[in-house]
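Hi R.,

Here's the chain you asked about this morning:
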Amino acid sequence: MNPLKKLAGQTVIYGLSSVVGRLLNYLLVPLYTRYFLPEEYGIVTELYAYVAFLVVILTYGIETAFFRYSQKVPNKRTVYSTCLISLLVTSSVFIFIIFCSAQPISNWLQYPNNTDYIKFFALIIGLDAVSAISFAKLREQNNATRFALVRLLNIFINIGLNLFFIIYCPYALEKGLPSTDFVNSIYQEGYGIGYIFIANLIASIITFLMLLPEMIKSVWIFDKSLWRKMMIYAFPLLIAGLAGMTNETIDRILLKHLLPQNLNVSAEIGLYGAFYKLSILIVLFIQTFRFAAEPFFFAQEKEKNSRKVYAEVMKYFVIITSFIFLVVTMLYDFIILFLGSGYHDERGFLTVSILLAANLFLGIYYNLSVWYKLSEKTKYGAYMSIFGALITLSLNFLLIPILGFVGSAWATLVCYLCMSIVSFYLGRKHYRIPYPINRILMYLSLVSVLFFASILFNLGVVIKILFILLFISIAFILEKPKKAVISNPKLFD
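And here is the predicted structure, written out as tokens:
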């Protein structure tokens, strides 16, 4: 089967769990922004920023190591069981430590009366870390359907419980519905955003239970020698992941400490968190793509003309993400209506546009990262992520006091742009891939021209839609001549 078609097909299936599921989850944003004030939503934004770091620490690059060594070691079951046991031990220790120190952590975060939030998140992170390796196994086996079903169920449960606790329970109590006694037994008025975390925890527990058969069927062998090799391979990825998460989430943490004190800091964090959500369409596509692409890239390595395939994948990735950028920016006036009126801030469009561009370059960087993973030079991934983290930290410290959260957005864009450039030039030296640079730059330039033209001339929505259609038409015309060639498996023989 044509490798591009195979990757596209798997991406579509993974998209059912990521894009469709997350889009449904995305509908929670207008719920939160209507039921909770920006300062309340700011707490949610901040805590989930810390969670992102801890998930990286608790998985310590072992997923990618699993993919790599599943291709190198004859007994894949041993690879899986070694990873699983490792994650079970480390996650259990983590949960124990956090439970024992929940009050000091709450005090440090300035939420002294909410130690339960900390415990909820400890369980969520621990369960999700263990579940991650079973999800990786499904991806390695190309079992995209089961992967999608489990993740979709997780999302539906999370959404359903959010709606139940935030909307139904207060309504049932107010109207005196027959279910009032049941609601009173499980619902506490005034607990507010706490129910967001409870819903997430229950969904994580159910997901873990659904993946439990995969774990029970494991051979339960811990190969110390294999584990050491995987850890050597994975450690640079852990460093890269931590540095990468610094790039992705540190802004929401630093805002609390760097914003001018005359501002409502929690409200500013809440606004920024909401605007970040509006850039989610590109993030969703990137995540969906990564689920399919990572095992695909490793498997494709053995095939003839694999590097040409990687180059084609990059080109089409840029086309799709550029299209998403255009859609969100051109239709921003409609998309902002998803948020409650308290979130219609004049800084929103600029912030969302910058974050969309930043995430586009993040996606390009993920594509480029194939060179150091396939060449087993993962230390370069760590170096580049650390480089990006230094840029992010420096610019956040410099720009937040001056520009507020807009400065954080600019820092994110500069970081990912620089990382993409550095990765491209290092890749040319260590694992050269014939990317169609001129064509990629042409698409990026076209998007930029259309974007700035819509701003400078203050164009109406009809013209903006025509801009979107123009981009699609140009991409179709330019790529159409290759359609017959690309669809021909002989190209890759």
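One quick note: The chain has a mean pLDDT of 84.

Cheers,
M.
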